[in-house]
Amino acid sequence: MKSDSKIPVSTYFGAMTFDHKAMRAKLPKEEFTALQDTIKAGKKITAEIAGVVAHGMKEWAMENGATHYTHWFQPMTGSTAEKHDAFLSIDRDGTPIERFSGEQLIQGEPDASSFPSGGMRTTFEARGYTAWDPSSPAFLMRGGKDLTLCIPTVFISYHGEALDAKTPLLRSMEAISNSAIRLLEVLGVTDVTRVKTVAGIEQEYFLIDKKFYSERPDLVMCGRTLLGALPPKGQQLEDHYFGSIPDRVLEFMQDVEHELYLLGIPAKTRHNEVAPHQFEIAPIFEEANIAVDHNLLVMEVMRKIADKKGFALLLAEKPFAGINGSGKHNNWSIATSTGINLLDPGDTPEKNLHFLIFLVAVLKAVLKRGDVLRMSIASMGNDHRLGANEAPPAVVTVFLGELLERVLDAIESGKVDLKTEKQVLNLGLSRVPVVNKDYTDRNRTSPFAFTGNKFEFRAVGSSQAASAPNMVLNTIMAEAVDDMSDAILAKINAGQERDAAILETLREQITATKLIRYQGDNYSEALQQAARERGLPNLKNTPQSLRVLLKQDVHEMFTKYGVLSEQEIDARLHIRLERYVKGLDIEARTLQLMLKTFVIPDVSEYQGSIGNSLSNLIAVADAIGLSEGSLKSQADHLKMIAENLSTLLDMSAELDEMIEKIDSFATEFEKADYCADTLLPFMSAIRTVSDKLEQVVDRSRWQLPTYSEMLFEH
Ligand code: ADP
Ligand code: MG
Asked: Where do the CATH 1.20.120.1560 domains begin and end in the chain?
């Protein structure tokens, strides 16, 4: 479908998805209703329905031009995978015919031995199953000349272990639903059948010209620059933020949005970000597993369209040192089947009380499991961002905003009389939604901020799939919600009235969770100090964060809620450590390549040229009346270059040894620690020398595109 601004988006929104409308058109009424019911109840679909749905889906896909289908899944590599099969098959009598059976729809068997399993599958049973997640609609993806029917699936082993990121997310959504329904019952709300987790995922990214990108091995191989001096302008002026969007980028955005609308992805806002060439796209929130799928598609669609438009899309968390990094703000809330957002302060005292109970449960979850939350977003790329320039710190605290702070303080200090408390809650909170709007922008430094009717987890990395952070959020919340239910029930069982039990628990838990609330500037030294005083974890890098997955009580939590088994936890730990070490190995090798084939030859050539001109000058100095002293600055300049070049050559030799050394360690943790504590700082030291040289070497001899070119030329 051609992009035409005269056609309202609503008329083609979701045209490439097998959504409600397409299903109604293609399925017999009985199967249509049965499928809708299964989706609503979050259940598995039966074989009989699957056959009919598969047929309808195939007809629809073929009418739209698809020849192939694929089970689209999220292996533990953090991206997506697909294996295409043609609808075409040959009947026994030799007739070619398009077929797509129920079995092929609900279960596929990709030869997946090359996907990481963290040791969960031995080679003889290397195949995993992919099974349709009917809650996420199938869609048609453009690629090459044709369209492919993509079926969002989970990916599991023969023995039912999750080999992907989607399965645990779905399980965590189930867990929080069960816990929240139980707490609501304790609170006296009995009409809720399901509690949904919803997420709105804001995506930040950089766009640079493809010609610069292809000339930088670090960007091509690692997605971030390993070298490069900061330009004089940088982002000091911050004139890019909310400024007008350059035309070429706007066209890119419009093409992306058009494609997203066809895929039923509700792209809502677009704007410039803080850094030059940095932008953001945000869709309207959806149920968490769909939001995560859609975010993966957003990244994929952007990558394809950027390429067509002559751009390179940079999703890395910190593509340019010293310049603002990119994140993925995960806006998260939970809502009942009766349509109530449990994190929305309501308009009645009753609703406000329920809101406060769930709010305090969030505080409890983050206080108890802040390290798990931190672990969920740990990655090589995000390590450069967390705690760096304009990014949330590695310490996780919660920002509530002034008014809520006051309300919680008042309840805690007992200034509020229990008998009249409900009345006070009413007065105090009826203004929350209005007031909080102002706060959303006021504390952009918090990694986990309450923004009126949702929490915004801002520490998620821009290139990461949002499945793990949402999975962890749901699980730690399920646990905290259960703790709240238990605490209230204990009081009721001890003979207290329900209302009194609820209010007293609220008061106790406000006190118990005080340490996690932080309203100040999270970029400041004061936060680091507060973290030390309060004993909050400050996990600086990926290997440190991944150690959280060794903790017994963390294992107990994940297994108790049926989100991850012992084996699934171990597999994830193993894969993530390995990815970290491999990633750093690649970065170090890329840096070495750049030193040897770009920086060192360029500097040598420049050194040669100024060396020559200086010796020529010395030869004629007497004749033209130059004293030795008047050549001193030129000699010093040459000396500085010669010294730094020698340093760089020595460092390059040492880097080779370091790369060799990685494999000498016995365990993955030792390798990862070595990479984090020794290799990475050494790479930064190399960069410092190289960047110093970049700033003095004749531009015509410097082959690598510079930061100025990449960030300021359009
Ligand atoms: P910001 O002020 O950070 O730019 P917005 O108010 O525009 O944020 O919302 C950011 C994201 O949060 C959007 O994706 C939006 O749809 C989503 N969002 C809004 N309400 C909720 C909610 N109740 N739960 C989860 N996400 C929400
Ligand atoms: Mg935001």
From this structure: 580-712
Between 3.30.590.10, 3.20.20.150, 3.90.1150.10, 2.40.50.140, what CATH number should domain 203-226+235-326 receive? 3.30.590.10
DSSP calls for 587-625:
HHHHHHHHIIIIIHHHHHHHHHHHHHHHHHHHHHHHHHT
Which residues, by Cβ under 5 Å, contact ligand 2, an ion?
329
| Mean per-residue pLDDT, 286-297 | 96
Q: Is 280 in the pocket of ligand 1 (CB under 6 A)?
A: no
Burial (0-12, 13-18, 19+ Cβ within 10 Å), 379: buried
Whole-number Å distance between alpha carbons of 1 and 15: 9
Which 3 state secondary structure label does DSSP give 644? helix
Distance CA 655, CA 687 (A): 12
First CA to last CA across the chain, in angstroms?
29
Q: Residue 676 C-alpha to ligand 2 middle, in angstroms?
A: 30
All CATH 3.30.590.10 domain ranges of the chain, comma separated, are 203-226+235-326
d(CA 442, CA 449): 10
The pLDDT tens digits for 15-24 are 999 999 999 9
pLDDT digits (tens, 9 = 90+) for 386-436: 876 567 778 999 999 887 888 888 888 876 544 444 444 543 443 333 333
**In this structure, which topology does domain 580-712 adopt according to CATH?**
Four Helix Bundle (Hemerythrin (Met), subunit A) (1.20.120)
| Range(s) of the chain covered by CATH 3.10.20.70 | 9-163
The two structure tokens encoding residue 657? 């040894």
390 close to 324: Cβ distance less than 8 angstroms:
yes
Q: Which two tokens stand for residue 456?
A: 């915004």
Look-up of token digits 């952009």 = 444
Model confidence over 125-151: pLDDT tens digits?
456 777 888 888 999 998 778 899 999
> Residue 200: CB within 6 Å of ligand 1?
yes
Q: Is the CB of 439 under 6 A from ligand 1?
A: no
- pTM score > 0.90 for this model? yes
Q: How far apart are CA 399 and CA 386, in angstroms?
A: 17
Question: Which residue is listed with tokens 């207290």?
Answer: 496
3-state secondary structure of 207: strand
Residue type, 161: E
CATH class of 9-163: alpha beta
Q: How much is the pLDDT for 419?
A: 43
The rounded radius of gyration (Å) of the Cα atoms in the chain is 29
Is the CB of 79 within 6 Å of ligand 1?
no
What share of the chain in percent tops pLDDT 90? Answer: 68
Residues 6 or more apart whose Cβ sits within 8 Å of residue 641: 603, 606, 607, 610, 693, 696, 697
Residue 534: count other Cβ atoms within 10 Å of its Cβ. 14
Kindly state if the Cβ of 545 falls inside 6 Å of ligand 1. no
Predicted local distance difference test score (pLDDT) of residue 78: 76
Distance between Cα 385 and ligand 2 center (Å): 17
d(Cα 385, Cα 380) in Å, to the nearest integer?
A: 10
Q: Inform me whether the pLDDT recorded for 440 exceeds 50.
A: no
- Please tell me the distance from the alpha carbon of residue 468 to that of residue 164, in angstroms, as a whole number: 10
DSSP state of 145: T
* Residue written as token pair 């102002």: 438
Query: Is-contact 467 166, C-beta < 8 A?
Result: yes
Q: Which ligand is nearest to the CA of 441?
A: 1
Give me the residue label for tokens 């070495």.
592
> 710 CB contacts (<8 Å, ≥6 apart)?
208, 209, 212, 216, 277, 320
Do the beta carbons of residue 711 and residue 231 sit within 8 Å? yes
The CA distance from 445 to 193, in Å, is 37
Q: Which three-class secondary structure state does DSSP give residue 713?
A: coil
Percentage of residues in the chain having pLDDT higher than 70: 91
Confidence band for 220, pLDDT divided at 50, 70 and 90: very high
